[in-house]
Amino acid sequence: MANLDFNDLFEQYYTLYRAEADVPNSSEEEYTIAQVLSKEAINRWSHYDATYWKELFVNSLDATDGVTVLATGVSTYACPTNMKEAGGYVRIRDSVTNQIQTSFPIIEPQEAQFKADNTKYCYFTGNPSMGFTLHISTEVGAQDNGNLIEYIYYKKPTYFTNGASFTEMGDPFFIVHRMLANRFRASRNPYYNSAKQDAEDALRTMQADNNSGTWANPWSLADTSGTEWGR
Questions:
Q1: Is the pTM of this model over 0.70?
Q2: What pLDDT does 142 receive?
């Protein structure tokens, strides 16, 4: 499905809501209300049924902030501000050849006290609200200075900041139906239930697609609910 920016979604939403050809511009009240409703819709999607959405797994090297370059003698590095959870490994890549030099398994912070001084490991401290810090067990030597820190992490969803912005959602028409349902609810419109059902149907379909993968590569995640990290 083609990605749609907020202006595209707003046009779809307003046409369904008012059935009018003239769509309000960004300075009008209905547009502002829709922006607020879209944030609620994205939040609903990102927290739905404890689902890990494939669209929200990203690489630290693709982030717009956070520290991903090793420095001699430094063992702590700020993580991207949109990070919500860590992945399963931290790798060091050569900044010139892009070859993997070494990998650090991720442990729980409290496990570090039981590790030998020369053991390779790393852990994250912090939380999604205040941000995370990556801790590497051994200080970086001169030979690794400037090399790259790579790890997969699960990110927070992106909210619309203007009409030309996008979010990661696979089926953004869920946002249209969810906004419409909440607008109907606020105005005590009897079509609230049907719009809500349309939204929930779209959400369940996205979840089914997300969890099924492809016939050749089924999608699944190991259940690690018995452990926590970064606490």
A1: yes
A2: 79
